[in-house]
Amino acid sequence: MKKNKVLVLAAGALLLVSTAFGQAKLVEKVTKTGTELVIPYEKYVLPNGLTVIVHEDHSDPVVHVDVTYHVGSAREEIGKSGFAHFFEHMMFQGSDNVADEQHFKIVTESGGTLNGTTNRDRTNYFETVPANQLEKMLWLEADRMGFLLDAVTQQKFEIQRATVKNERGQNYDNRPYGLAFEKVSQALYPYGHPYSWLTIGYVEDLDRVNVNDLKNFFLRWYGPNNATVTVGGDVKPADVVKLVDKYFGSIPRGPEVAPVTLPAAQLGTTRYTSYVDNYARLPLLAITYPTVPNYHPDMAPLACLAQVLGQGRNSVLYQQLVKKQLALNASGFSQLSELSGELMFQFIPLPGKTLADMEALYRASLDSFEARGVTAEDVEKFKGGIESQLINGLQSVSGKASQLAAFQTFTGNPNKISELLKMYTSVTKEDVMRVYNQYIKGKPSVVLSILPKGQEKMAAAPDNFKIDTSGYKAPDYGYAGLNYSKAKDNFDRKKVPGNGANPVVKVPAFWRKNLPNGAKVIGTQNTEVPLVTFSVTIPGGHLAQAGDLKKAGLASLFSDMMAEDTKNYTAEQMAVELQKLGSSISVSSSTDGIVYSVQSLKKNFDKTLKLLEERMLNPKFTEDAFTRIQKQTLESFKAQKAQPDAVADAVFAKLNYGDNHILGMPQEGTEETVKAITLADIQNYYNNYMTSVDANVVVVGDITEAEVTPKLAFLNKLPKKKITLAKIDPTPAVDKTKVYLVDVPKAAQSEFRVGYTTGLKYDATGDYYKAYLMNWPLGGAFNSRINLNLREDKGWTYGARSFFSGDEHSGDYEFSSGIKAGATDSALAEVMREIKEYVQNGPTPDEVAFMKSAIGQADARNYETGFQKAAFVSRILNYNLPADFVAQQAKILQGMTPAQMKAIAQKQLKPEQMNILLVGDKATIMEKVKKLGYEVVELDADGKKMEGKTF
């Protein structure tokens, strides 16, 4: 094949007209030289209009495939909301040459991971797999682009409709404040504007839609000329383009797609609206202003304005409302989409304040902001954070490929990241004040009051807005006369492509070091991006209160206090310095430690460590900070009581471990225990548990052992003393399987938790690891028996899984899911039947082979990012694992047989001795569940037995 000469511009592009590979025309090539932020790529266009972008990156043996269609809920109309998201689900249900439920299975069996997402403006489908699986992924994506509709059956349609309704129930209807953005959008945008509803759509529209509507939606928007295929990773562009040409090139072009053009939202006056939330226990106020589309010149100053007003300790709203203990939460963010954007502020008041008070306090805070102005420091820290954020997003090929795909879809220019960074780093104080005056000062907004039941009088103001439907005219999107035309090929698409040569997977090389002060250090170098991830874990944490349950939650409260003032910095000053550096330092509590986590650009690592030293060694525990955090913690418990999933997790732990066991207590504590904690307890925790002995230090990133070791000298300033944590007593076995019920009136779903404490502590190559393998076909993967039964076959849930969890102290087995309320009894019967059948018969040979292939090949994806590398070496350090433990696991995996897995199931799964917890609407589920024959015990939201409530 003749090729014309190609000119390449560093960090730039040159249009070409030559045919480079087959039918595909190379139109751009971007390479990187110097230090400019750029994602190298080659861009091609096929005759059918398909855009192809290839990013070559041989740092890890993985490849990411992304197919983005320029269609989201913005292409929908009144009465037919949720189509784009619904179709995302249908695209996983098989095509002419891929059987039902096989898409997930093929990708998983290939050692990959996959998903799809829909937003207002685009839908994307993506897979990350070992590099030898590239052709198979392109075959899969092409098959559903060109050969989907004949495989769309009424049965599949009905099941996915039920699944989408369950997703809406789980993520919106059954969650505190879940409908906030839906209500805001209805009031902000004109009737009929596609941004006036959520991407997931309305339930009544989902009920109304039929299979032919969905088919027309596909024919209109899912043509190759409305799509971009982006491939990143361990590939060669010529190979990728050849395969894309083979599998996508013959798919006929779809109808032409023009950009959506709609007028911006305009508010003549402030619109007040409200609703009563079945789950909320605290009221919430949301104030929203219309702004501009994505990539508008005001994009960057609006983001900076949102940060100055509503993000972090130095924000105006935090200082004026949260720190003064007038609000539990006060925050703001800028959200921009293709057609327009929103600037939204949210407030949850502390007791004694109404939402009207919150609105008045917010407007007074704006006065304070105007008097304060925007400082050079505000802009400097904003720029530091943005640079770090953009670089962070380039750690994985999925991050780079997704960025290229988004830039191409919305701007037509994949080479946008440097321009974007320049846009952000060019922001001035004057820009920020200008957009404040243009979009907020004196401007009307939507003011939404979310009201708990019984607090209807808490609204900021009476509703003054009703949706006006009079001017709506349904758009003509061109659905008439659409025809389904299939590709004609000179090869057999039914033949599944084979695997390429197995990639060579290397676990990260690491170094270990025991310091004289008793700390243990592990590290691994990663030079792909100039970042360092660093953590110090000091023994203590939740287990420190094992002997004093009356103050459970102390370690959690202590970690919150460690993020407050130090002797030389206020918390606000510390936050400013970190943001300028583009760094972060967070403090958290775990089961057995306090964790100090750091992320920094390499160039700023020394300065960041100095701030960490100040944080660790010079805390200043003040009464004001303690009172505020204690009050916020107590109020947050009310919010948690309104979340069925949070209630389920807390009560299930109590059922498994009992009232008088530290692991039966939430790590955050309870209302009673947190009220009992004093400022003196915080100081005593610091005095008793800060030590360098047995501290675990993890260093991952663009830094060597020789570089980092001298920087750890500050740890010598910690006390050198041995901390001995309490041993965890084994919990008695469950005497018999019972159902425990927590009533959430009118809940759309029932939260399920089924299981018990196993006594299996974490080990990498023993019974714990083998139990993990055993459970995989039952509930550990998308194609597991339980998930396929409850989600794909029945449509009762958005997802269901079972798993073993464990650490060096204890272990649990748990099934969890959110099930639609009306199917609670039927789902429970199915779950218990699946477990019993698996125990009795074990997995099939095919299930075992599938598991070996999936888990065995997935190792290629496990060490790509800094966080993944940190997790890997942390595990080695925490559990003193041998360097070859991954190889040992592979040997155990490949040697596993169906008979062995059956024996493990019979040893580890005890369906006759499990706790079954249901958190849902008693009126809907109680009588049906009782008919299953289990004893039913009713509990309150704290897990306490309600007198006379055993059935």
Query: What do we call the CATH homologous superfamily of the largest domain?
Result: Metalloenzyme, LuxS/M16 peptidase-like
Number of helices: 31
Q: Based on CA inertia axes, which overall geometry fits?
A: globular
- Structural class from helices and strands? alpha+beta
**Radius of gyration computed on alpha carbons:** 28 Å
User: How much strand content do the residues show?
Assistant: 15-25%
For the largest beta-sheet, the strand count, sense and barrel status come to: 9 strands, mixed
- Taking pLDDT < 50 over at least 5 consecutive residues as the criterion, the unreliable ranges are 1-21
Average pLDDT taken over every residue: 93
Distance between the termini: 79 Å
Which architecture name of the largest domain does CATH use? Answer: 2-Layer Sandwich
CATH topology of the largest domain: Cytochrome Bc1 Complex, Chain A, domain 1
> How many separate domains?
4
What top-tier CATH class of the largest domain fits best? Alpha Beta
What proportion of the residues is helical, as a percent range? 25-40%
Give the tally of β-strands: 27
